[in-house]
Specification:
The complex is a heterodimer.
Chain A (H helix, E strand, L loop, with lengths): L4 E3 L2 E4 L5 E6 L6 E7 L5 E8 L2 E4 L8 E5 L5 E5 L8 E8 L9 E2 L3 E5 L1
Chain B lengths: L2 E4 L3 E5 L4 E3 L1 E4 L5 E7 L5 E7 L5 E3 L5 E5 L4 E6 L8 E11 L2 E6 L3 E6 L1
Parallel strand pairs in B: 2-12
Antiparallel strand pairs in B: 1-4, 3-9, 5-6, 5-10, 7-8, 8-9, 10-11, 10-12
Classes of the chains: A mainly beta, B mainly beta.
């Protein structure tokens, strides 16, 4: 597609429920990243995919968070048993490669509110 | 470890006056540096990037940044602010080593432009 697409754009969920956030990267981009932006804070790295594998999961806050990528394309970030501190904007980005010459293209994000 | 520090959390300028958003980086080797802009309720947009080519980098919307190794700085400037420049700006360093590949974001600088 023309840009990175994320869905849903907004999600309100009850504490304790599971949520799935979807990212559809730019066609052909092999690298995919998830970040989290909490209110009043900067962007926090969560996980990085190269193809379907995740060489760096170091930013996932807890074992309630998981992500997968299939077909070298769409990625899903799953949060189990959501907590109020999970409320944030979750941003996905993709890049043609991991080379240093490439910037990232970000999606518009999913605003998650846990009530 | 690589990191960036944005020296001002808020900057306020009058329309038509110069803009200076300051960023210092910490890196053990020649870094890749970026500036991103985030308008309210919009996604992150790449303004410009430095990848060890020319030290003066020109970006979109009249912004530019100069890489100064001696000062470990990558300040963002614009000669004349426009109302539409009001947004949050992020200085970013790319951490790329072995299996690691991620962007490290500064805390952000909120730019306000007054008539």
């Amino acid at each position: 597609g023309a840009g990175v697409s994320q869905s849903p754009s907004n999600k309100v969920t009850e504490k304790g429920k599971d949520v799935e956030l979807r990212c559809d990267p730019i066609s052909g981009h092999t690298a995919l990243y998830w970040y989290r932006q909490s209110l009043g804070q900067g962007l926090e790295f969560l996980i990085y995919f190269q193809g379907n594998s995740a060489p760096d999961k170091s930013g996932l806050p807890s074992d309630r968070f998981s992500a997968e990528r299939t077909g070298g394309s769409v990625s899903t970030l799953t949060i189990q048993r959501t907590q109020q501190e999970d409320s944030a904007v979750y941003l996905c980005a993709s890049s043609p490669s991991t080379g240093t010459a490439y910037g990232y293209t970000f999606g518009s994000g999913t605003r998650l509110t846990v009530v | 470890a690589q990191s960036v520090t944005q020296l001002d959390s808020h900057v306020s300028v009058s329309e038509g006056t110069p803009v200076l958003l300051r960023c210092n980086y910490s890196s053990s080797y020649s870094p890749s540096l970026f500036w991103y802009v985030q308008h309210p309720n919009k996604g992150l947009q790449l303004l410009l990037k430095y990848t060890s080519a020319a030290t003066l980098v020109k970006g979109i919307n009249g912004f530019e940044a100069e890489f100064k190794k001696s000062e470990t700085s990558f300040h963002l400037t614009k000669p004349s602010a426009h109302m539409s420049d009001a947004a949050e700006y992020f200085c970013v360093v790319r951490l790329s080593s072995g299996g690691y590949n991620k962007l490290i974001f500064g805390a952000g600088t909120r730019l306000a432009v007054h008539p």
